[in-house]
Amino acid sequence: MGNKISLEDEMINLKITSKQMVRSSKKCEKNEKAAITKLKKVSKLWRHDSRKILSRFDICDYPT
Fold first, then answer.
1. What is residue 61's DSSP assignment?
2. Distance CA 64, CA 50 (A)
3. Predicted confidence (pLDDT) per residue in 22-47, tens digit
4. What does the alpha-carbon distance between residue 29 and residue 45 come to, in Å, rounded to a whole number?
5. Is the pLDDT of residue 62 over 90?
6. Domain residue spans in the chain?
7. How far does CA 43 lie from the centroid of its chain?
8. What's the pLDDT at 52?
């Protein structure tokens, strides 16, 4: 018939899987924090650049 997996082997596999999931979760949280800080930096730069662009339009008197 087939290979039977004992209950102890199944428990070991579950523990290993649990540890892997915990590590993966921590890694994802770290990546999420890094992505959020990058987005904040980019949004600050974008706001600054958009102010420059708008001020240029105000100075140049472009027809609307």
1. T
2. 18
3. 999 999 999 999 888 888 887 777 77
4. 25
5. no
6. 7-64
7. 16
8. 64
